[in-house]
Amino acid sequence: MNTSQLALVAALCAVVAVLAVFAAVREARGRVVDPAKPASRMAGRIQRARAGLPDKWQRRWRHLLAAAGIVTLVVWAWTGWPVHGLLAGAAVLGLPYVLNPGTAASLRIERLEALGQWLNHLAGIHQAGISLPQTIRASAKAAPGPIAANVQALSDRLRSGMEAQDAFALFADELADGVSDHVVLLFQSHAVYKGPGLSDALEALAVTIHQQAADARGIEADRAKVRKSSRMVSMVICVVVIGCMLNDAWSGWYQSPLGQLVLAGLGGAFAYTLRWLRTIARTEPDPRLIDPLPASTLLALTGGPR
What we know:
- Helix 6 packs across helix 7 (132-139) and helix 9 runs antiparallel to helix 10 (178-193).
- By secondary structure, the protein is mainly alpha-helical.
- The protein starts with a helix and ends with a helix.
- The protein has 14 helices and no strands.
- The model is unreliable at 33-39 (pLDDT under 50).
- Helix content is 78%, strand content 0%.
- It folds into two domains: 1-31; 37-306, no CATH class.
């Protein structure tokens, strides 16, 4: 390692140290989220990107970001060229998405199946002649896993005395899917009119949701072929690129200002192609039927920032 590379390493270490101190002070002081202030576009994209990972990767999100940052600095310092480091960090950050391309779709299908099971359970309990809030509270402990936390939160809100319409609206916002909005609209309608036949309506809606989940599984089986192909192509290209970068005869031309620009363009084009393939094979939730609650209403109902 020559003198310029050592100077670069020292500068990068100083920057990392300053950022670490800033982050530590910020965490120590605590961060208060203003619910009235809409989230930035970048924050929304990061949240959606994180939601597309399996639970184990979501829990390790900060570790993944830290690993990507460290790899970026190490490769940059080792090669002396910034684009090499940025591409290496991007590869680390994108690896979970390449290995788990259909996570969001699988989670949605599991949630639909769980919602259908829960509705069947509600229908059976409601036949005993108890009210809808009592039926929901009685079903909370046996709610299927994918929606268990949401059903328990709904039960707790109803038990605490919150208005049923508000509790149902919060439940709809948490699930954020047009299919679950159908369920909430049924709940809200019954809470107002209290007509007979709720058990039959719940069972009919459960059948419809189960059919939607089965159709979605069939579609996902076809989309899995696209995902498998994109995953294999991505892995092969990454291996080839790593081999080329380790060979000076192949990577020498990129170790120049013009070569760095070309390398950045190639890396960006590859990332855009992967994102395009992922968009083609992605399953979007059904359009919402209920408008999301305003931030001020959320604050009033929950008693604090979310």
